[in-house]
Specification:
The protein has 92 residues and is mainly α. It contains three helices and no strands. InterPro entries: Glc_translocase_bactprenl-link, GtrA_CellWall_Glycosyl, GtrA_DPMS_TM.
Amino acid sequence: MLKLFTKYTSIGILNTLIHWVVFAVCLYGLHTNQALANFAGFVIAVSFSFFANARFTFNASTTTMRYMLYIGFMGTLSATVGWVADKSAFPP
């Protein structure tokens, strides 16, 4: 159980770092708005997390439908958070 938790946590940390890097590149390097930067960072990071956890943490197979539903739902949530931040003029 501890080994499973360690794998899951490690992938989560990498996922967060990937999200931050992609967000920063989009926002500061490509000069996109927060909603698009957050959405791009999220999609790339969560894709990594989905496949890495399936393979290395849970030894599970993935399906295209499960992946698309997960990305669609979570991506919409992420874009909404970015949109609210843009409309509220919250700093990144």
